[in-house]
Amino acid sequence: MSAPLHGAGYARPPKRAGTKEEVLARIKAHLQETLGRQYETERKEARMTRQADALADRQLWDDNLATSFMPGFVTTGPRRPEETDYRMRQFLGRYGHVRSD
Predict the structure, then answer these.
(1) Would the CA dihedral through 41, 44, 50, 55 be positive or negative?
(2) d(CA 100, CA 64)
(3) What is the pLDDT of residues 38-77, one digit of tens each?
(4) What is the sign of the dihedral through the CA atoms of 4, 6, 10 and 15?
């Protein structure tokens, strides 16, 4: 895995949407400053860099979440093997059916 960018946080938290009022205030402010202006497109290199950073952040968060479930509990030290009662085992017959004898 590549090293994180120098000066950047290891795992930036995902962007929060905020409350309904905060979202509406941001939309209103954005519309007031952008309406009536000529739209400036983002350069391809800047857009690709931004999208690659967002993808790397998302993959890091997904990997960390998946890893938090993986280790599970492992028994350490000597332990007896599990034994199943002979009467509780299911023996398979010729064509895959369970024998009942």
Answers:
(1) positive
(2) 47
(3) 888 899 999 999 999 999 988 988 888 888 887 666 767 7
(4) negative
Dig out the tokens for 76 from the structure. Answer: 């350490």
Which residue matches tokens 């690709």? Answer: 48
User: What's the CA gap between 13 and 57, in Å, rounded?
Assistant: 9
Among 40, 55, 43, CA closest to 2: 55
Three-point CA angle 30, 55, 17, nearest 5°: 35
Strands (E), the chain: none
The residues, ordered by sequence, that sit 6+ positions from 23 with a Cβ below 8 Å of its Cβ are: 17
Q: What is the mean pLDDT of the chain?
A: 82
